[in-house]
Task: inverse folding
């Protein structure tokens, strides 16, 4: 079957996902329409295609141990000068994202890997474009706000055309938790 490039992420739901994708394209990021708006749990990772059933089985287990949690985006941040990225900040749900990504990459699973940089949940809105456009993205989305209840994540594969396509969604195993629930009521995923 050969090698495939996969990623695991939390999709930013509509209408927020399309709005941020259009803004990203508007800043001149050519990759914008090939990358659904998301919070990464597993960055692009090459695996043998024959391992996809094992990856899916692992993700089913990770999702089963998870519980819905509130996600909130607010304002912008950047990884410059280390990396040419401007992002919208995850201000609620970051601890839960961190908990999930550790389990996705667990050494006992099929996609164990080290990260190039420490994990920092975010939503990229500009990557690898000129500095003036990066500055514009940072400034124009500084007041951006969105929130939703995160109820799962998805496995994506990058095609030969560079476009990321969803292979499968994984819903959390627990009951839906209202956004106002206390950290103890949220179950095993820690609060932000």
Result:
């Amino acid at each position: 079957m050969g090698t495939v490039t996969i990623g695991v992420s939390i999709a930013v739901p509509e209408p927020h996902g399309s709005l941020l994708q259009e803004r990203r394209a508007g800043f001149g990021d050519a990759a914008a329409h090939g990358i659904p708006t998301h919070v990464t749990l597993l960055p692009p990772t090459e695996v043998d295609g024959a391992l996809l059933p094992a990856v899916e089985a692992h993700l089913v287990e990770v999702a089963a141990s998870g519980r819905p949690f509130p996600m909130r985006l607010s304002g912008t941040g950047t990884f410059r000068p280390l990396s040419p990225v401007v992002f919208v900040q995850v201000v609620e749900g970051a601890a839960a994202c961190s908990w999930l990504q550790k389990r996705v990459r667990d050494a006992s699973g099929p996609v164990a890997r080290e990260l190039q940089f420490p994990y920092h949940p975010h939503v990229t809105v500009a990557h690898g474009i000129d500095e003036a456009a990066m500055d514009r993205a940072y400034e124009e989305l500084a007041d951006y706000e969105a929130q939703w209840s995160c109820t799962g994540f998805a496995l994506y594969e990058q095609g030969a055309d560079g476009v990321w396509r969803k292979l499968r969604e994984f819903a959390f195993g627990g009951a839906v938790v209202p956004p106002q629930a206390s950290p103890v009521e949220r179950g095993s995923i820690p609060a932000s």
